[in-house]
Task: structure prediction
Amino acid sequence: MVSEFYKEMTGKESVIRQFFDFARARAAEKGPDSVFNFSIGNPSVPTTDSFTQALIDIVKEGDPVKLHGYSPTLGQDSTKKAIADSLNRRFGMNYTAAHIFPTSGAAGALSHAIRCVAGKGEVVLTFAPFFPEYNPYVSGTGATLKVVPADYDTFQINFEKFEEMCDEKVAAVLINSPNNPSGIVYTTETIEKLASILTKKQEEFGHEIFLITDEPYREIVFEGVDSPFPSKFYDNSICCYSFSKSLSLPGERIGYMAVNPAAKDADLLVPMAGQISRFTGHNCPTALMQFAIERVIDETSDLSIYEKNANLLYEALTKIGYKVVKPMGTFYMMPRVPSENGDANEWCWKAARELGLITVPGDSFQCPGHFRISYCVPTEMIEKAIPLFEQAYKF
Result:
């Protein structure tokens, strides 16, 4: 008999994928010029030449048995050391290789981190707007995800609601900065206040509350923006990272979980993640990707196009009349829906069907009345789409 739990999930397809699939179908029917697809966060710039060369060199020069063999359960030692050294150099931390667990992207890192510190009967808190896949990441542990309502004026943390909701059942707090879908970045002031509250709550409840940080957009921060490294401010923290955006490698599924050395049971969490892999079937990213990453550990693709696109789109939309919190990083922004009834689903589908303008309603991000624009697209497409956003504003 098939699993009823997963059977039920098949009827809950990601809304992002629904709009992405609609865009593909429209392009096939009416031609690619009929579609302006801002639905999905797939990097639009190539990876670096040095990463490509690293792959070539490794394949040509490496031992094929080692290169294509099983990676150790906890990852390649040299890769783990390269990641730890990079974090220490950049952020003044003191990670060792033993605190790093290579994963299949940030999704793999988050799935392991949450299982390390939360379980049945416990609560994981996150903040709206948030990436909808947090729901299965958390529910798969037996814990419950609860969402702190958004501060729609800034998309910074709604601390009043957070303190109300942070009770003794909370095992972990999950944050995403720079943020998908809003494009904002939590400031040093925000992170310091969050750390202070969590420290007090730990003392009040007599147990640890872990801070899990989802950071795949860490390198996509715009000029002059204050972007702190959260683990620097709170001991019981686990950083989850992916090279998908910084090096434009989403299809390679390579990232890591980094346990703060000052955390409670810090030396146990990576070995625990190795045991969790036995349940998830994760068993490490490929050795090839790990060896390649360590050679370009501090490099990024040319990410400047995202800030250029953000400025162009923000200026155009605000001039039209849209209300938008100005993005500070990533390649997303989240304007308010301009229609009178504020129904984002209705507005987004109307824009998609009538104009070929593909965005994503904010309801699944728990921001009703808003829609997400993913502007990791050619600048020329944005320029051509601006008149369509103007038409859609009049719906």
